[in-house]
Amino acid sequence: MDWILNMEAGKELDSLVHKVLYGYDMNIRHVHVCPNCGWECNDLETSSRCQACWGNGERVTMDDSEEMYNFHPSTDMNTAFKLANLEGIAVIPQSSDKGFRWYTCDLESVHYRGGEIALHKYKDTGISCDSAAEAICKCYLQVKMNR
């Protein structure tokens, strides 16, 4: 499962989490987006201007086509924490000689001793990353794919 640890936060990691969570591929749209109002269209055959802004008297040119999707657990903390709650993943801030990082693991591996947190490996789910959202996604995938 080292290949999961080597993935970077973004579309590829989000897509894999979506596939494991929902059982089908994530919907990725290729659209042109208006930089002014966010209106989307699939092609610019009729006009390169935003039709929504045009109706308001503005002449805004649509951006180039880009990939859009609505599921961002590796970069969106709200979505990531829903995953953590769903699977019982502990999220623990940690400081090290490399700076501040986030550690995630299965809740069953967390034990409190006074003011300290003691961890032991459980189902090989311990992961440390720069962002909590990325660590949660990778931990979630390891838990689900090791079953």
Describe this structure in words.
- With 147 residues, this protein is an alpha+beta fold.
- It contains five helices and eight strands.
- The strands form three sheets. Strands 2-1-3 form a three-stranded antiparallel beta sheet, with no helix packed on it. Strands 4-5-8 form a three-stranded antiparallel beta sheet. The protein has a two-stranded antiparallel ribbon with strand order 6-7.
- Helix 2 crosses helix 5 and helix 4 packs parallel to helix 5 (132-145).
- It starts with a helix and ends with a helix.
- 22% of the residues are buried.
- It comes from Paenibacillus medicaginis.
Observed structural traits:
about 150 residues; 5 helices; 2 domains; alpha+beta; Phage ABA sandwich domain-containing protein; single chain; 3-stranded antiparallel beta sheet
Specify the structural class: alpha+beta
What is the percentage of strand-forming residues? 25-35%
Q: Strand-and-helix sequence, N→C?
A: HHEEHEHEEEEEH
Main beta sheet: strand number and arrangement?
3 strands, antiparallel
Number of strands: 8
Write the layout of secondary structure elements.
Layout: H1 2-5, H2 11-22, E1 29-33, E2 40-41, H3 51-55, E3 66-68, H4 77-87, E4 89-96, E5 99-106, E6 110-113, E7 116-119, E8 127-129, H5 132-145
Antiparallel strand pairs: 1-2, 1-3, 4-5, 5-8, 6-7
Describe the structure in brief:
The protein is α+β, with helices and mostly antiparallel strands.
